[in-house]
Write a structure and sequence with these properties.
This protein is an all-alpha fold and about 200 residues long. It has two domains: about 1-130, Orthogonal Bundle (Rna Polymerase Sigma Factor, Chain: A), CATH 1.10.1740; about 135-204, Winged helix-like DNA-binding domain superfamily/Winged helix DNA-binding domain (Arc Repressor Mutant, subunit A, Orthogonal Bundle). It has nine helices and no strands. The chain is elongated and about 55 Å long. The relative contact order is 0.10. The model is unreliable at about 1-20, about 20-25 and about 115-135 (pLDDT under 50).
Length: about 200
């Protein structure tokens, strides 16, 4: 999934940009103005929102589904849903938080549909701007395997908090759980990983 692939909306990207292109003076100065422009039907504005949020949205999806291909599908589905629901978004809200909830729901839907998936399904030779260069290492593989032993929600919480840096309150909103539940899930996930990785260290 790339930003160029997303905001087609029935038009080639180049055509959409020609029809909705703004001058330098007209370019929205902030995210709220971009949202308002997108709500008026300017595809270029939504393209810009995609570029601003796609990496963090991918991180949210990947925390939930683990699998790279499924994470990209979740981001694609999430952005499509967000675009279609854009008229219902209130511009005074935080667009990123709203989008992350949509992407998280898309990722959770994929998780429910695909209970068992091979995390290494894609060949390592497939290029991706998001693929971690260390992903093929022994430690990365073992850590991923350890994460996959956790319940989906606990796994999501620990990755969102410890890897992506989301706050407990943000995680609660993204996953639609109380902040206290996010805290307890994080404690549980860390305890489980310490136990599992402690055994891994002994075997290395």
């Amino acid at each position: 999934m790339t930003s160029a692939a997303l905001p087609v909306w029935g038009l080639p990207v180049a055509t959409a940009r020609r029809r909705n292109q703004w001058t330098v003076a007209e370019r929205p100065a902030n995210e709220r103005e971009l949202v308002l422009a997108a709500q008026r039907g300017q595809s270029t504005a939504f393209s810009e929102l995609v570029r601003m949020h796609e990496r963090r949205a991918y991180a949210v999806a990947r925390a939930i589904v683990i699998n790279h291909e499924d994470a990209e599908d979740a981001v694609q589905d999430g952005f499509l849903h967000a675009y279609r629901a854009l008229d219902r978004f209130l511009p005074d809200q935080a667009f990123g938080a709203w989008l992350h909830r949509i992407v998280a729901n898309a990722a959770l839907d994929i998780t429910r549909r695909r209970k068992v998936r091979d995390a290494d399904e894609l060949p390592e030779t497939v290029a991706s701007p998001f693929r971690d260069p260390a992903e093929g290492s022994e430690l990365r593989s073992r850590l991923r395997a350890a994460l996959e032993t956790l319940p989906a929600r606990q796994r999501s919480v620990i990755v969102l908090h410890d890897v992506e840096g989301f706050k407990h309150s943000e995680i609660g909103k993204i996953l639609s759980i109380p902040e206290g539940t996010a805290r307890s899930d994080l404690h549980y996930a860390r305890s489980q990983l310490r136990a599992i990785l402690g055994e891994v260290r002994k075997s290395l």
